[in-house]
Amino acid sequence: MPELPEVETQVRDLQAVVGKKILAITSDTHKAWKPNFAASRQLVGKKILSITRRAKYLIFKFSGRVVLVAHFRMTGHFLIAKSATPLERFIRHSFALSSGIFLQFSDIRKFGTLTVCAESSHEKFCKLVDLGIEPLEKNFTLAALKQAFQNKKGMLKALLLNQSIIAGIGNIYADEICFNAKFHPASRVENLTAQDFVNLHKAIQQELKKGVKNRGTTIGEYVDTLGKHGKNQLSLRAYKQHGKPCSVCGGIMQKMKISQRTTSFCAHCQRKK
Ligand SMILES: [Zn+2]
């Protein structure tokens, strides 16, 4: 599933269509539209004023105070095309824009969602209000991380995956963050010391920034709006590395399940707290 760095890469690329007007929308997967496909008509004739990200959501603001909130789920991604011809086999939705540009939404698994709502209510309607702190924003300070984890109990990786605590981290970056900070993913967060929080804070920012710099991790379907793969999969040190030698100590990487997700780690380098 695309995580914060992959969605951020798409949002940065999509700035190319800000200012364009939607001329028509076609869709062969009506169930993706919330509250229903008929709501998509509200976007036709409207101009895209801004495209931003919150956690793994893309937020398109339009003239007329209408908002489209997109979520990629498993395999969704946008492509920017110069004609109506589908750039990939699984284009589910196509937006004809002014200047002859087409915004195509590819989604093999069909779990992606497109929610149309009023600007005034979109944060509540799409549950954006329930999301935790944004880890690449300025307000994600060491104090803010400690505050977010205050009175929380449980395994470190499970808390990193909890979108209501820190927003945007999924299975890939959670494993990479635990490896970077040298914490066993099953460490208990209630046992973290002040120095541990310093290391964790640094690791979260380093791994997510690295992911953005590498234009995302392509494992499965993820590509940028030109259809190009990211590069972060070439330098992963933990995610899906079980059975391979650890890049630091050479020991064989282990795996376990945490929150029903396969978790890879080095039992030698990553200490349980
Ligand atoms: Zn190791």
Write a short abstract of this structure.
With 273 residues, the chain is of the alpha+beta class. The protein has helices spanning 4-14, 122-125, 142-149, 156-161, 171-180, 194-213, and strands at residues 22-27, 33-34, 48-54, 57-62, 66-71, 77-81, 91-97, 102-106, 113-118, 254-258, 261-265.
Question: Could you explain the architecture of this structure?
Answer:
The chain contains 6 helices and 11 strands. It has helices at 4-14, 122-125, 142-149, 156-161, 171-180, 194-213, and strands at residues 22-27, 33-34, 48-54, 57-62, 66-71, 77-81, 91-97, 102-106, 113-118, 254-258, 261-265. The strands form 3 sheets. The protein has a 5-stranded mixed beta sheet with strand order 2-9-5-4-3, covered by helices on one side. It has a 4-stranded antiparallel beta sheet with strand order 1-7-8-6, with no helix packed on it. Strands 10-11 form a two-stranded antiparallel sheet. Strand 4 (57-62) and strand 5 (66-71) form a beta hairpin. Helix 5 crosses helix 6 (194-213). The mean pLDDT is 97. The structure holds zinc ion (ZN).
Low-confidence blocks of residues: none
What is the number of helical segments per DSSP (H or I, 4+ residues)? 6
Kindly state the number of beta strands.
Answer: 11
Strand order of the largest sheet: 2-9-5-4-3
CA-based gyration radius:
20 Å
Tell me the distance between the termini: 28 Å
Bound molecules: zinc ion
Major β-sheet annotation: 5 strands, mixed
Helix content: 10-25%
> Structural class of the helix and strand makeup?
alpha+beta
* Mean pLDDT, all residues: 97
**What's the helix-strand series?**
HEEEEEEEEEHHHHHEE
Strand content: 15-25%
Shape: globular
